[in-house]
Amino acid sequence: MHPKPLDTSPSVHALLGAELKYHREKEGMSQGEVGHQLFVTGAFIGMLEAGTRRIRPEIAPRLDDLFDTGGFFFRNCDALKKLRQPDQSIEAAKAEQNAKRIHEYAPQVIPGILRTKAYAQAVLHSGLPTAAEDAIKDLLTPVLERAKMLQDATGPAVWTVLDEAALRRMIGGPAVMAEALRHIATLMRRRRIIAQVLPFAAGGHPAIEGALKLMTFSDAPTLAYLKCFASGQLFDDPETVAQYEFAYSLIAASSLSPPDSLDLIESMAEHYDLKSGRTYNLGPVLLRKFEHLEQQPRISP
Q1: What pLDDT does 106 receive?
Q2: 78, 212, 221, 293: least surrounded by Cβ within 10 Å?
Q3: Is 198 helix (H, G, I), strand (E, B) or coil?
Q4: What's the sign of the alpha-carbon dihedral 113, 116, 119, 125?
Q5: What residues are paired with 232 via a beta bridge?
Q6: What is the sign of the dihedral through the CA atoms of 144, 145, 146 and 149?
Q7: Alpha-carbon span 45 to 52, nearest angstrom
Q8: Sites in the chain below the pLDDT cut of 70
Q9: Is-above-0.85 flag for pTM?
């Protein structure tokens, strides 16, 4: 059985990866043997060959020495740093599937991995108001596949910080929002995810201008992913990733605790139920409000 040829079309990094694979096989070495020489795992060498991870400048000279390539990898890695990076949202989605832990700050909408079908459809319709229904269905499929990762305990550990705006921005109508927030609450109560809400009262914070996702792997360095309008960018430079990890820690520290966040999320779900005209038992809502008032400090006359 012949090995499947590498697809070098999606990324220039895959071209370097294909060259690495060529030299490795020419020397009769396994991915594990090359990884041992570079102090990384064989699985990580496979990622480099597939182009899902880039060959970094500190690794390139060691590859040149190992395969006696006359500085080929170092020269090309240096040239790639000067290129304008294309949208890497597809690469980020693929990386997410293999992540061991996911930390994500969502400033405006519920993250894809936490979305219900109705909410995901509403987000797509909002962003692509003139798109045909078939096109929306094609885009919806990978979103729902990502959400399935949380159906059992074998999926990644997820820690999400939702900006208060993501709770209050009504996408798809009140019924859709109520279902979406209850889905998050259910995942929290099942201890499948950790979620916090960053309230408006927290003011400014390090990621105020965009979304941030950190993906940790068992056999590869951590990736940081920044999402902006119609585009996304992956970062694997350790110093850069460390800065984003610090930023995420600051955001989490400014957020409500998970129990308080759960209360707010469920209260907002009940609020949307009322807006949608559904009948709902107001007892828990009124009880929480009463307990909150009882905990307020009393002012002496």
Answers
A1: 94
A2: 293
A3: strand
A4: positive
A5: 227
A6: positive
A7: 10
A8: 1-13, 78-88, 229-231, 278-301
A9: no
3-state secondary structure of 229: coil
Q: What pLDDT shows up at residue 7?
A: 40
**Rounded Cα distance, 113 and 181, in Å:** 13
Tokens of 146: 């990502």
Q: What are the angstrom distances between the C-alpha of 69 and each of 25, 31, 48, 82, 226?
A: 14, 18, 17, 22, 34
Q: Which two tokens stand for residue 74?
A: 């170092």
Tens digits of per-residue pLDDT, 39-83?
Answer: 888 888 888 887 777 787 788 888 889 888 888 888 877 666 555
pLDDT at 171: 95
Measuring CA to CA, which residue among 106, 255, 117 is closest to residue 169? Answer: 106
State both tokens at 301: 């006359």
Tokens standing for residue 7: 């697809």
Question: What is the pLDDT at residue 230?
Answer: 63
Q: Where are the alpha helices (DSSP H) in the chain?
A: 12-26, 31-38, 42-50, 60-67, 72-80, 89-97, 117-127, 133-147, 164-168, 174-189, 238-253, 258-275, 283-295
Least Cα distance to 269 among 145, 201, 174 occurs for 174
C-alpha–C-alpha distance, residues 38 and 22, integer Å: 17
